[in-house]
Structures are given as C-alpha cells and as structure tokens.
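quick one, 375 residues, struct below
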Amino acid sequence: MTDAQPAGTPAVGGDWGPHADTPAGRGLSAMIASDRLPHALLISGPNGVGKRDLAIRAAQALLCESGGREQGPCRSCRTCRRLHDPGQPALEPQHTDVEVVGPGSLCADANHDHRNTRTVGICVIRRIEHDANLAPFEADRRIIIIDPADALTADAADAFLKTLEEPPDGVHFILLTSQEAGLSETIRSRCRSISLAPLQIDSLETRLDEWTQTAGVDAPEQPERRAELLRLARGRPGWLQANLSAGDPVTLRAAQIDDAVRIANADRSERLNWSEQLAGRSATAQSVANVELILDAWTDWWRDLWLYLGKRSESLTHRSQMERIEQIAPMYDQQHITQFLEQIQRTRALIQQGVNARLALDVLLLAVPVARTSP
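---
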C-alpha cells in the first residue's frame, strides 16, 4: 500500500528537511497534518538517502510543542531537540515515548547480550510489544522506529505480524529499510509504504550549503573536489552528512582507490593479510562497517573501469582519477569486471544476512579480476 502527494501539491510548513519537496516528504507531512498517519509505516530507499532523518522528523512533528502536526516540526522546541540534538546528531532520541530499535537493542531477558548482533530477534520484539501496550509516559502517543526492518529474524517478523495488524491505540511503528524486497510480503502488506529516491544534484548541493552553514562542517571549496563529493553522494543527503562529519570523503575515497589498485596486483597472501587488518579476527559492528565502506568504494571504482571500457566516460564517478582509469581499464576484460561487480553485491548481501564479514571479504579478494600483462 503506497501513499504520496501529487507532484504539484505544496509542502506543509515547518522543517521537513531534505525531502520536504519530494513526493514522499509531501505525502508524509500531509498524513500527519490531517491526522492520517498509519499505525504501521514503511519507509524504503537506498542507504544514506535520509530514511531515519525523515522518521525522526515525523516523530518530532507528532510531538512538537509548536504545532508540528499542522506546520511540520519546528526542530527547536525542547521536545524536538530531545529527539534530535544538532550538537550531537548521532545521539539516540532522549524521549520516553520514542525509541529506535535495531541490532543491539535490549530485550526483556537480562541474560541476553545483543551488543555484537546484526539482527533483531524475537526477544526484542516481545519487549517492544510489551512496551507498546503501556500508556505513553509524557506524550499522547508512542513512536517506535525499527532501523533497519530487514534485520528482523524470520521468527521476529512472524511474531510482529499481529501487533502490526492490530497495534495498540496511540502507537506508531515506523519501519525503515534499504532492502524492501528482503522483507516478507506479510510485513509489507501490513504497512503503508513510502519510498525515498535520491535527490537531484542541484537539490543536494543546496542542502550541502545549508548544512555546512548550520553545522559548521567544512565542504570542499575547489569546484572539482566539490563536484566529486556530490557524485560520491549519489543524491543521498544522509551519506553526505555522515561522511563529511567524519572527515574528507574525497580524500578518503582516493586512499580507498589506492588500496583497490594495490590489492588487484597483490598475491594471495598479501590480500588475505589486508583482509585481516581491515575486518579483524572477530565479527564486530566496526569490522562490518569497515568492510561495507570498502564494498561501496570498490563498487564505484570497478564500475568506473567498466564505464570507461564501454566508452561512457561522462558517467564516471571518480573523474579526478581519469589518468589512472585510462591507464588501468584497458588491462581488464569488461565481462570479468561485470562478474566481479556481481560478486561484490553478493558479498554485501551475505554480510547483511549475518555471514562473517572477514570470511566474506576473503572470498571476494580471491575473485578480483586478473589484469592482462598488456592492453
């Protein structure tokens, strides 16, 4: 079930963020303004596109002290700032009636340790179902955000169906996913769905300017580096904010490409040693994050080599690496690159399913295409 406003419908006032003027943003703001927000909402879209940000803004609008339901969240009242503190953007919501549930969330069993898990199990679902049946403590409703919903185990998803179908009064579940097809049809059928698409590059650049001014983060000033940053973001404002907060994404990507080129020419032993350095010996949240960063970078890099061989240089992401691409791409067969890109996506899927990140990376590194000795 989907819901979105027509393209010509004006956005409701307030601060709805990067997606304020998109069909998804207009649809969500209209639902809240007319008190038609469903008890189960599914927000889908690519990683980093802004799903969690929009979910938090929806919670702010519902609880805002300045008329957020009609006008959109003010983002400045005490309640709005408890849900999102601009000075500490990574901080979880600090409100008793709003919770973000994901891998690592607590359950009712004190003997369970979920700190390094990548799934949301049935014990966590049982706990939030219990909490959902309690009266709100401060507000007139509860909002529970599940991020990502595709982390639900099969048992957890099955146990959650009844609550999604007949939720307690005054409770809203907002499920977020970048893999809607990975959710069961029974889960999807019980939710109203909205889909977030990447922003157009001019809209993303406007958001970049606004965000760097308000957050005090430096963005590249040189036109070439700025353009490369926007290409790396691929229309994803969440990716842009997270990576700029952590440093200089353009410089980091150049280093990741250096590694990709070096590993492609390395022997088996060097590849596996690098895998251990990157992913570690144990499966932790940080090791998984490290591997996923590499998969993102390698997807873009090998895709650029594929595009160059296909005479589509205008679509390259790493145009600052043009000289290197011209030198390296002819050393590879385009079909072999296609197969390797498919292998990267399979590796990503395996890691998301809970396969050990180090093992998955080892297998991928042994599948790196072999360069010809001469073009």
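The domain at 17-195 is CATH 3.40.50.300 (Rossmann fold).
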